[in-house]
Amino acid sequence: MAPRILVFAGSIRSGAFSSRTADAAVKELALQGAEVTRISLADYPLPIMDEDLEKEKGVPENAMRLGRMFAAHEGLMICSPEYNSSIPPLLKNTIDWVSRISRDGEHVLRPYAGKIVGLCSSSDGNYAGIRGLYHLRSVLMNVGTQIITEQCSVARASEAFNEDGSLRDERTAKMMTRACISLIEHVQMASFRR
After folding, report:
1. Per-residue pLDDT for 12 more than 80?
2. Contact at 8 Å (CB) between 90 and 121?
């Protein structure tokens, strides 16, 4: 059975480099045999994480929808921009809300349990957003995911994509291929151990 991978970008800005990177990851994952679902966080708007709000109203329905979707996939590929050398607030807020989920009605729901995660970054600068991935790794490890070592960082992103959405630079394209293959292999190994 093909591994199920959920792909999303950490930005919802129109024309976001992270969204273009996510689209490139979708193509590569599908080429490598994964069953891929691509979502946009714009379709799951959430209030700022607030424990008082959670106590009063519970976990927002959009966080629950995301949690169900995370739980239904063996792997995640997150493509993040870098904001001031760190994680964009949209992505951090999403991770935080989903981490608050422990039940879905009468059923236990652990969205991050056993989840294998691949990471990509993008930036118009030379650092390619890589500094933000250090913080993203830390947050994702804290919620209980396993993050693969291989990653893809797209530098000079405004010039990095061909018209068909593929990566122009051969070295970057190879990084994407390695990250996608590794994610699939780790998901398959984890499934085999279960």
Report:
1. yes
2. no
Hey, what CATH topology would domain 4-193 get? Rossmann fold (3.40.50)
Q: Residue 194's pLDDT is what?
A: 62
Contact 93, 139 (CB under 8 A): no
Assigned token pair, 61: 């329905």
CA distance 41 to 21: 15
**Residue-averaged pLDDT of the chain:** 96
Single pTM value for the model: 0.96
Contact 79, 21 (CB under 8 A): yes
Please give the distance of CA 140 from its chain centroid, rounded to a whole number. Answer: 10
Q: Using N-to-C axis directions, what is the helix angle for 61-71 and 89-99, rounded to 10°?
A: 80
